[in-house]
Amino acid sequence: MILNALCSEFRIAYLDLENEVVFSQFFQKGSIVDGNLSNQDIAASTVEIEFIPDEGIWELDKELNYDLYLEVIRELSYLFSGRTFEFKYQVGDSTHSAGFRFERGLADRISRDSTVRYCEPLLPLEFHGTSDEIDFDAASSFRYYDFESNFVDSFVNFERTRCHGTHVDAMIDGFISAISEVATSGFPEDKWEITREKILEVIAAAIHVRMARPSFEGSVKEQLDSKEVFEPIRNAAEAALTKAFENSEDEANRLLGEFRVCDDEWRARFLKEFYESS
Question: Model pTM?
Answer without folding.
Answer: 0.75
